[in-house]
Amino acid sequence: MQSETAILELQAAVAEPQLDLARNVPLSLRLLPGEGLLIEIADAVSTAIFADLCMGLVPLQSGHVRFIGNDWQELPDEYTAALRGRIGRVFSTGAWVPFLGVETSILLPLIHHTRRDRGELQSEAVALAREFGLPGLPLDQPADVAAGDLDRAALVRAFLGEPVLVLVEDRPDVSLARIPAVLNRIVTVRDRGGGIVWLARSPAIRGVPFPASQHLRLSDQGLALVRSVG
């Protein structure tokens, strides 16, 4: 039986006013093991801030954000770093370090946050790359890698290392959920008790074939339930 400890919980969380997230309306949600949330968001800035909020990177005016039962605000820095190593994230901006090869950028977070051997991580990353349609890990710097290949490499980085939580910042121009094998990988994460939060910009929401437990909408009025499944 899966634990009822939420993978991610926002409890009346209000970001600092200068961030202007949902006009400072308290945000609440619970993501349980094996669930997936589809959250419709209007703009790229709010998408990035909300993803940062989930990772404990946004200062709060009030409320709480918890990851697998741990309140981000109450943890020492070294522990938050280790916990973030259990979160995969696809950034809408790519978030590649321009002077590093793509392979290094993929492996670096887990090399830093876990004790796993580099060779073991590299083998797993190569297998994921092939699963997502790449011949292997791109070695060039991001500027020299085709945009479609960078999209697939971003998925490798997010799903590498069996993360407990995966945050996906989708884009209006291309739905990452349509890349072959993405939905299968999502099912794998959920089957082992992990959780997915798929953040989709509003104009493209109908093009996202994401199997969600709940469909929410984030606006200036806060988080609203659009649809619940099961």
Strand order of the largest sheet: 6-7-8-3-9-10
Reported by name, the CATH topology of the largest domain is Rossmann fold
Rg over alpha carbons: 17 Å
Q: What do the pLDDT scores average to? A: 89
Uncertain runs are none
| SSE ordering | EEEHEEHEHHHEHEEE
Number of helices: 6
- CATH first level of the largest domain: Alpha Beta
Q: How many β-strand stretches? A: 10
Q: CATH superfamily assignment of the largest domain?
A: P-loop containing nucleotide triphosphate hydrolases
Biggest sheet descriptor:
6 strands, mixed
Beta fraction: 25-35%
Question: What form results from the Cα inertia axes?
Answer: globular
The percent of residues in helical segments reads 25-40%
CATH architecture of the largest domain: 3-Layer(aba) Sandwich
User: What is the domain total for the residues?
Assistant: 2
Class inferred from helices and paired strands: alpha/beta
N→C terminal distance = 18 Å
Condensed summary:
By secondary structure, the protein is of the alpha/beta class. It has helices at residues 44-54, 77-84, 102-113, 118-131, 147-159, 182-191; strands spanning 8-15, 27-31, 36-41, 60-67, 70-71, 87-90, 165-169, 195-201, 214-219, 222-228.
What does this structure look like?
By secondary structure, the chain is α/β, with parallel strands linked by helices. The chain has 2 domains: about 1-85 and about 165-230, P-loop containing nucleotide triphosphate hydrolases (Rossmann fold), CATH 3.40.50.300; about 95-160, no CATH class. It is built from 6 helices and 10 strands. It has a 6-stranded mixed sheet, sandwiched between helices. Strands 2-1-4-5 form a 4-stranded antiparallel sheet, with no helix packed on it. The protein starts with 7 loop residues before the first strand and ends with a strand. About 35% of the residues are buried. The model has no long low-confidence stretch (mean pLDDT about 90).
